[in-house]
Fold this sequence. Notes:
With 265 residues, this protein is mainly α. It has helices spanning 6-29, 40-58, 70-108, 126-141, 144-158, 168-177, 180-209, 215-256; strands at residues 114-117, 122-125.
Amino acid sequence: MINITTAELNTLLAAFLWPLSRILALVATAPIFGNPSTPIRVKLGLAVAITILVMPLVEKSLPPVDPASGVGLIILMQQAFIGIAMGFVMRIVFVAVEMAGELIGLQMGLGFAIFFDPQNSGQIDIVGRFLGVIATLAFLAIDGHLMMIALISQSFDTLPVGLEGLTGATLTTLANWGSEIFKSGLQLSLPVLTALLITNLALGVLTRVAPQLNIFAVGFPLTLSIGLFVLALSMPFYAPILEHLAHDGLNLMMGILNINKINMP
């Protein structure tokens, strides 16, 4: 007959619930994993599988706290907040890319071509969605999803389960990382925006020279054609920028968790 004491049961529950809250928060908020089109059972199964694998590492550094106590609930929320912060870092990268697409689509005259985006639970224009798909493929190509799993696994060594969570300096860094949306979004959309600005200036001069010209009949197809042409020419140069953005996000995640190197399998 197997006898399990209350202390052993509390230790087993703590070794499972506390890491699960951190991992599940990352899976729910990070790109790729947190896509609403992904079934909830798949997300939960992935989080449970990773938790079972990291449980032997967590048991060595667990604080002597009852998981059902008030302090245990605080630790549970602290771990969930750490996972949300990690997912937020990578989410910013994809939002920046989609913002670039929205700027391009607005200048091209495709601001009306919007549809529902299940990943963000909101509306997004067609160019933003297109660049978002390109960013997703680039992220998968550099094994970004595997790096995130490696980071969350190593985080329990550098940032063990306990009352100590993210510092104020780390939270400030996360807040400043939000500016990457505008910086990278403008950087990605600048080639097309520049070409469209020159096109609009030329159309303005043409309207002054030939007032009888119907600018609405000529301007829309012209800006649309030039925008698509310049976007196609710019696509080969987007790959290194997207890869750089993904690596910056992963490096920031490592900085948050005080990890110096990702040990990939």
